[in-house]
Specification:
By secondary structure, the protein is an all-alpha fold. It has helices at 6-17, 24-58, 65-78. The termini are far apart.
């Protein structure tokens, strides 16, 4: 069983009474589909960011890992 806040229940009731959805289950199903789509876009965005980073590295615009590690060690040593 799912417990809703009064505000959530009111929103669902409003969606059904507006005629946009036939019943509360349809409202919840639509919300779940929107959440799935949102997560999918986030994942696709992360993949695009990784691909862009790899292209930049291939073009010689990256920073060698050894430099990053040396910088991190130097910063830690200052603490």
């Amino acid at each position: 069983m799912i417990r809703l806040t009064p505000e959530q229940q009111a929103f669902i009731d409003e969606q059904v009474s507006s005629g946009r959805y036939s019943n509360p289950a349809d409202v919840v199903s639509a919300a779940i589909e929107l959440l799935r789509a949102s997560r999918s876009r986030e994942f696709e965005g992360a993949i695009a960011d990784i691909e862009q980073s790899l292209e930049e590295i291939d073009a010689g615009h990256g920073i060698p890992a050894s430099d990053v590690i040396a910088d991190a060690r130097a910063r830690l040593a200052k603490r």
